[in-house]
Write a structure and sequence with these properties.
single chain, 120 residues, mainly beta, seven-stranded mixed sheet, four-stranded antiparallel sheet, 58% strand
Length: 120
């Protein structure tokens, strides 16, 4: 069984920065892809940033140039560095990983979510 545990959310003023972390632990696995999503109240869960198996990073237009996704495979950890935060970035942020475990087909895993609130 694999678990993703997030940390780093909180309350920050507009223009500030936060760094989210997501650590994968449990059964033996190999990372295929990883991503951050967010869900604001009353809205659908949207992709914020992702890194594919080839290492290329993709960002939502609303965060490009302000957010950076990165990972430390040795620590099974992914990060989301968020800068120049805006009130509209307020949401619950979820990490997601596509992992190869005992099967040759990857499975998707989700973190529990961490609240990010940006005050104006």
């Amino acid at each position: 069984q694999v678990q993703l545990v997030e940390s780093g959310g909180g309350l920050v003023q507009a223009g500030g920065s936060l760094r989210l972390s997501c650590v994968a632990s449990g059964s033996s696995f190999r990372i295929n892809a990883m991503a951050w999503y967010r869900q604001a109240p009353g809205k659908q869960r949207d992709l914020v940033a992702a890194v594919t198996g080839g290492g290329r990073a993709n960002y939502a237009d609303s965060v490009r140039g302000r957010f950076t996704i990165s990972n430390d495979n040795a620590r099974n950890t992914m990060y989301l560095q968020m800068s120049s935060l805006k009130p509209e970035d307020t949401a619950v942020y979820y990490c997601a990983m596509s992992l190869y475990t005992s099967s040759s087909i990857p499975s998707n895993y989700w973190g529990q979510g961490t609240q990010v609130t940006v005050s104006s």
